[in-house]
Amino acid sequence: MNTPIMKGKVCMITGASSGIGKATALGLADLEATVVAIMRKSEKSEAAFAEIKAKSQDSISMDADLSSQKSIRKLADDFNSKFERLDVLINNAGVNCSKRTLTVDGLETTFAVNVLAPFLLTNLLLQKLKTSAPSRIVNVSSDAANGAKLDFQNLQGEKKYGMFRSYGQSKLALNLITLEFARRLEGSGVTANFLHPGLVRTNLVRDLNPVAQALLSFVKLFFGSPEKGARTSIFLASSPEVEKVSGKYFAKEKETQAPEESYDEASAKRLWEKCAELTGPNQNLIQTAS
Q1: How far is CA 189 from the centre of its chain?
Q2: Closest Cα to residue 205, out of 146, 153, 142?
Q3: What residues are labeled active site?
Q4: Domain at 41, CATH number
Q5: Sign of the C-alpha dihedral, residues 212, 217, 220, 222?
Q6: Does the CA dihedral 243-185-141-264 come out positive or negative?
Q7: Which domain holds residue 123?
Q8: Is 1 inside a domain boundary?
């Protein structure tokens, strides 16, 4: 991992202030990538970015609230004005809310952050990815999608909300969207892949009651480290082995089979149209690979 194979490459990583995102950013910085770390402003974020910049001096941090579409659009505009290229986009940030809450846009938070944010950000940065080709989109999913069903009548928990149900559905939706990106980008030089990082000690669930939080803290003692969880993201972002691989699911740095529902093209197309509707006017929205 110490060979500077990413020197001169620009890599954006969302959710880079902690957990898998921070470990991924540090791993790519070790490879001398220019890391664009997306994180909310806080003392923790400043400390995390100091570690990243110590490894890769050209790296920068950019503030964004991924639950706000206005903030996502500003992030994309700022990035596009600052950078000539984007070699890798890692949509890593995610949430798992124990209760149904709404974003500033009036959207259910889990669906907004885990699905709509990567959909919108990727589309807004797509032209930069195309002009930088060969380039890569890496979406951090989860095996929580196993057994999940996409309910178009309850995408945002309008009828019934459950933390694990909503999280699993959001990750299945991310799988479908990733594969739809791969299909629409075929021949463009931009690849799109997705991954399961494994069971990792992170702060993904933060609003549980004290008893549930204590139980989760005990269970997480048996989970892997963020550094271990970041390995597949780093592999997909940097390895020459997967430069031309697109539309595939990975775990433990190996291609594997995603949950069967992930490959439903009709659902993917329908979901794409729904995401386009929920993210509003978007001139950058990809229709084909051209």
Answers
A1: 20
A2: 142
A3: 167
A4: 3.40.50.720
A5: negative
A6: negative
A7: 10-278
A8: no
